[in-house]
Design a protein that fits this description.
- With 468 residues, the chain is an alpha/beta fold.
- The protein has three domains: 152 residues, Methylthiotransferase, N-terminal domain (Rossmann fold), CATH 3.40.50; 229 residues, pyruvate-formate lyase- activating enzyme (Alpha-Beta Horseshoe), CATH 3.80.30; 56 residues, OB fold (Dihydrolipoamide Acetyltransferase, E2P) (Beta Barrel), CATH 2.40.50.
- 36% of the residues lie in helices and 21% in strands.
- It has 14 helices and 19 strands.
- The protein has a six-stranded parallel beta sheet with strand order 2-1-3-4-5-6, with helices on both faces.
- Helix 6 links the parallel strand 5 and strand 6.
- Helix 1 packs parallel to helix 6.
- The longest helix has 24 residues.
- The model has no long low-confidence stretch (mean pLDDT 95).
Length: 468
């Protein structure tokens, strides 16, 4: 379900009211807002919409939190360390609030969608003005209006799944790469994961709205578009039009313009041969698939509620490599899931050796309140899990070095997006396969596709030179 035109007009009216109130409060110039989004790309995308609304309401922006008149932290609940860091950062804001009583502090996102977290913020950090969850961030204008009109604490948290929010103002973080959500939520309920509880059930955007945004980004000169979803390849659920993710990819690929397309995060149970074939035949879809396996032990995969086994996963990988010879692969791995034995862990290492991923995102299991895994016995000490992780990383480092060495002499199309780490005279970017590439070049190349011949390999990526 999408928000109604009445809902949107209500928020636009609130934006206008807030703008007038801020103009009266800050007659000598615009107030400054500081925003920060923790965690996944979906959070970053939500943060861009938050910044868009703030700009519409009359805020300018600062990268210095001490200068801000409004601070919005968009939180992440996926891992415990992220939560601890956010609590620490919120604690540090108390002195800023004391120095500037007019400072507005807001917390939103996945952490705030959890009742026990919102309660802790209310009780332990009473100087926080706004608390809002993942389903209602579009209500920021009315929340700010209430706060500016004198309400001391404004909170908006609904336990129900949010609707699809379209046509909000957006202030993107860059001009080269763009995030584009195509669906929200997750129906998988992996036993370790809090996402379905804080992001809700799966709901998809209408394809015409997605394609409209793709065309707009292409016209604006964006060179890379990342299609986002908590389970992006299950796109299509709940839509009147019978469309699945491969068909959406084909329509995006047909949009005119000089840009490339990535997507994440995929679930192996929803990765089809049709999706792989679509990538193989496309013009704009990058030949890279991020396919989180999480574990190489079938016993642990069942405990995780992942709905596939290693044989099915490896068959997908085999087919993908067969259809896309230059395919690069990445994955997520959880080390130390409750009840995991060293034998289970060794099966994960074995799978990594079989697949030969180009790069991995690896994590030690993090207990999340409210998930089924949080209730499971977890006898392996943290120090032992850390030891396993170091062993896994050593194996992956060898594989990555080998994979990068195989690229020496090859031509890679690179989207230049940053200065090179070697210093002046170097630039960097990612290949179509999402491999980091650095080479001598002028900063004016930023935002352009460049053909680079690879000359050196490292375990983090490759180096090269512009091809003649």
């Amino acid at each position: 379900m999408e928000q109604t035109k009445e809902d949107l007009s209500q928020q636009r009216a609130a934006m206008a009211v807030v703008r007038k109130m801020l103009e009266a409060r800050y007659p000598d110039g615009k107030p400054l807002a500081y925003t920060h989004s923790y965690g996944c790309q979906q959070n970053v995308s939500d943060g861009e919409k938050i910044r868009g609304m703030l700009a519409e309401m009359g805020y300018d922006f600062t990268s210095q939190v001490e200068q801000a008149d409004c601070i919005i932290l968009n939180t992440c609940a996926v891992r415990e360390n992220a939560e601890f860091r956010i609590y620490g950062n919120v604690g540090n804001l108390k002195k800023l609030k004391k120095a500037n009583p007019n400072l507005i502090i807001g917390l939103c996102g996945c952490m705030m969608q959890q009742a026990h977290v919102a309660k802790k913020i209310r009780e332990s950090y009473p100087y926080v003005d706004l608390i809002f969850g993942t389903h209602v961030f579009h209500l920021l204008p009315t929340m700010l209006q209430k706060r500016l009109q004198g309400q001391k604490h404004v909170e908006e948290i609904t336990p129900q799944d949010g609707c699809i929010i379209e046509d909000l103002p957006i202030r993107r973080d860059g001009t080269i790469k763009a995030w584009l959500p195509v669906m929200y939520g997750c129906d998988n309920f992996c036993t370790y994961c809090i996402v379905p509880y804080v992001r809700g059930r799966e709901r998809s955007r209408r394809p015409e709205k997605i394609l409209e945004e793709v065309r707009s980004l292409a016209s604006a000169g964006y060179k890379e578009i990342m299609l986002l979803g908590q389970n992006v390849n299950s796109y299509g659920k709940g839509l009147e039009e019978p469309i699945d993710f491969p068909e959406l990819l084909r329509r995006v690929d047909a949009v005119e313009g000089d840009f490339r397309v990535r997507f994440m995060t995929s679930h192996p149970k929803d990765c089809t041969r049709d999706m792989i074939d679509t990538i193989a035949r496309s013009k704009k879809l990058c030949h890279h698939i991020h396919l989180p396996v999480q574990s190489g032990s079938d016993r642990i995969l069942r405990q995780m509620n992942r709905h596939y086994d290693t044989a099915a996963y490896l068959e997908l990988i085999r087919y993908a490599k067969e259809q896309i010879p230059d395919l690069t692969l990445s994955s997520d791995i959880i080390v130390g899931f409750p009840g995991e034995t060293y034998e289970d862990f060794c099966q994960t290492v074995q799978l990594i050796r079989q697949v030969e991923y180009d790069f991995l995102f690896t994590f030690i299991y993090s207990k999340r309140v409210g998930t089924k895994a949080a209730e499971m016995d977890d006898p392996v000490p943290a120090a032992e899990k850390s030891k396993w992780l170091r062993e896994l990383l050593a194996v992956q480092s060898e594989i990555a070095q080998k994979r990068c060495e195989s690229m020496v002499g090859s031509l890679q199309r690179v989207l230049v997006d940053s200065p090179g780490k070697k210093g002046p005279g170097w630039v960097g970017g990612k290949s179509d396969g999402n491999i980091a590439v650095e080479f001598p070049g002028d900063p004016s190349l930023e935002g352009q596709f460049v053909q680079v011949r690879v000359t050196q390999a490292h375990n983090w990526g490759v180096m090269g030179e512009i091809a003649e």
